[in-house]
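Section 3.1: Structural characterization of target chains.
Under the original work plan, the team committed to producing a structural model for every single-chain target entering the pipeline before any wet-lab resources were allocated. The record below documents one such target. The sequence was received from the expression subgroup and is listed exactly as submitted; it comprises 99 residues.
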Amino acid sequence: MRKIASSLLFTLAVIGLYLAQIDLASSFGFRRFNPDGFNNTSPSPSPSPTPTNGQAADPGVRGGGASSGNPLPGLTANQTAFFNQGKGDFNAAEDVPDG
């Protein structure tokens, strides 16, 4: 009889701790971030917020012609020569045997 009572007491203690943990956990984070509880009517997933100062923003499509393929302004003569050599190699068409 004593063995059954101790097993039952242990089981009730585990269940009690589990329920206390659930109550404790539910009293923290969710209410802190959503004070209204489960009354959230926004669609899921929620749309992204409008960027504020300090956040990145997509500028969209640039107007005008493409400005790629030219060296950056302010390069030294050695850097410009290195760029032009690489540009020629980049623009050269290669076949399978060329690698």
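The mean pLDDT is 76.
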